[in-house]
């Protein structure tokens, strides 16, 4: 449900941050 999507989003954001060195929000 929503939690599943949230977890996936979190993992994707972490990967994107590591790849693009996003700003530490």
UniProtKB/TrEMBL annotation:
Residues 2-25 form the Ribosomal RNA-processing protein 7 C-terminal domain. Residues 1-25 are annotated as: Disordered. Residues 1-12 have a biased composition (Basic and acidic residues). It comes from the Eukaryota. Signal peptide: none annotated. This is Ribosomal RNA-processing protein 7 C-terminal domain-containing protein. It comes from Arundo donax (Giant reed).
